[in-house]
Design goal:
The chain is built from nine helices and nine strands. It is α/β, with parallel strands linked by helices. It has a five-stranded parallel sheet, with helices on both faces. It has a four-stranded mixed sheet with strand order 4-3-6-5. The structure holds adenosine-5'-diphosphate and guanosine-5'-monophosphate. The site of guanosine-5'-monophosphate has 14 residues, from strand 5, strand 6 and helix 4.
Length: 225
């Protein structure tokens, strides 16, 4: 049987990679799709682990050859999910996590409507800014214009949350990881009633208090989206 496809999107710096790593520690049978990108490796990133790092020419050749399930240009670089990632997960008999931006997510939702989509929000713009700064300092690349661009982009992306089945606020990592774990188990039909309740509270349309508070902190009201 084909595994479940989980689409995870979040504004850059929300803690999506941290959260995905934590959930993969808590739940077995979850493969991570390693995307192709034309951006340069950051910090300790390794080719083939976080991304397949490639050139624009090679990426464009892959687009022309129809090798991508989806692709998009994000912050001036190409990013894409190769069809091969799906085949690999299928062969392994595992579920697959796609960490992709909102443009790519919409393409996959249209192509594969049974995919389970999850949007991760930072709790507030102040926290997002702090996380972006901490990360760039840790990587030795403090660039104000990049941080500003990512904060502005976050507001645009947050307006897309209603296209996603679930929305999680990554405030305390443990709590967000438990919620994502509950969503995975519920999607598999393996959840206890308590885990099922937890997942149900994360349904985007349920508009949890935390979700409303995070949206309001970005100046986004329900009427706007
Ligand atoms: P993304 O993958 O969304 O771009 P990262 O996972 O790289 O984000 O996280 C950005 C920064 O925020 C990192 O320095 C990470 O350690 C930190 N971070 C992630 N989640 C949390 C959390 N729940 N609480 C505090 N800091 C966090
Ligand atoms: P970063 O450069 O911070 O790793 O990622 C920047 C953005 O690109 C994030 O929003 C991330 O989700 C997105 N991204 C990573 N891989 C892919 C992909 O394969 N396809 C698409 N559409 N977006 C991706």
């Amino acid at each position: 049987m084909a595994g479940i496809l989980f689409i995870i999107s979040a504004p850059s710096g929300s803690g999506k990679s941290t959260l995905v790593n934590e959930v993969r520690r808590l739940v077995s049978g979850l493969d991570f799709s390693v995307s192709y990108t034309t951006r340069k490796p950051r910090g300790s990133e390794e080719d083939g682990r976080e991304y397949h790092f490639t050139t624009r020419e090679q990426f464009e050749r892959m687009i022309d050859a129809g090798e991508f399930l989806e692709w998009a240009e994000v912050f001036g670089n190409y990013y894409g999910t190769a069809m091969a990632a799906l085949d690999l997960a299928h062969d392994h008999g595992t579920d697959l996590l796609l960490d992709i931006d909102v443009q790519g997510a919409l393409q996959v939702m249209e192509e594969l409507p049974e995919a389970v989509s999850i949007f991760i929000l930072p709790p507030s713009p102040e926290v997002l800014e702090r996380r972006l700064r901490n990360r760039s300092q840790a990587e030795g690349v403090a660039n104000e214009s990049i941080i500003e661009a990512r904060l502005a982009e976050a507001r645009t992306e947050l307006r897309m949350i209603d296209d996603y089945r679930y929305a999680l606020v990554n405030d305390a990592l443990d709590q967000a990881a438990s919620e994502m774990r509950a969503i995975v188990l519920t999607s598999r039909g393996d959840a206890t009633p308590a885990e099922g309740d937890l997942a149900a509270r994360c349904v985007t349309g349920a508009r949890s208090v935390r979700l409303e508070a995070a949206l309001a902190s970005f100046g986004i009201s329900a009427a706007e989206i």
